[in-house]
Amino acid sequence: MKYPNRIKELRKRANLSQRKLADEIGVSESALQNYEYGERDLPGDIIIRLCEMFNCTADYLICVDSEKNPSGLVDVIKPSYSYHVVPIVGDVAAGDPCEAIELIDDVLTVPEAFRETHPDARALRIRGESMNKLFQADSFVIFDPELEVRDGDIAVVYVNGDDATVKRVYFAGDTVVLHPESTMEEHLDRAINTKDPSSPPVTFAGRVFWATWGDNDVRF
């Protein structure tokens, strides 16, 4: 099924590239291409952003009405929105470590301030319940590879190379303790002696500083 719309027409009239428009409305470039070609239905929030961008009605945007702006408002492109996007780089376990699953070409909308304060930030989608006191399964955590992981921080941790998990981290001498924060008793601390040759290697992808799900945003 095709979903007709005037996105491409309006974008070209405004002299915007696909990448620029995608950044403005907070989607990936490939998602915008799918919208333009009518391969994907337009979500309500994207329709609202596009109508604000191009100063048109929703009916005009989706080809229901031939009149762009019955109210006669001036045809202008509005300034950039106060948000930023970060890449979603995969799924991560909040349970037993498991291999992170790469997600292709997707982004997450975050506060505009992150553009300057955390320019290298990345997002991961949570699976599992070992951190459910702090955030739910299918929520997104945002981490910064440039932030040092300190004692008591929440971090994205790689155990044995490719196995990724999110845990609160404690340091006790040569031992790294991965601490779950869960309502479920089966999730226990895992202590790894970094000097023991038989222990799996532990590395940190970055410190988690933000989590979001639904209308909830939590800073750590």
From TrEMBL:
Pfam families per UniProt: HTH_3, Peptidase_S24
SMART domains: HTH_XRE (SM00530)
Domain HTH cro/C1-type: residue ranges: 7-61
Keywords: DNA-binding, Transcription, Transcription regulation
CDD domains: HTH_XRE (cd00093), S24_LexA-like (cd06529)
Molecular function GO labels: DNA binding
InterPro entries the record matches: Cro/C1-type_HTH (IPR001387), Lambda_DNA-bd_dom_sf (IPR010982), LexA-like (IPR039418), LexA/Signal_pep-like_sf (IPR036286), Peptidase_S24_S26A/B/C (IPR015927)
Protein name in UniProt: Helix-turn-helix domain-containing protein
Native source species: Gordonibacter urolithinfaciens
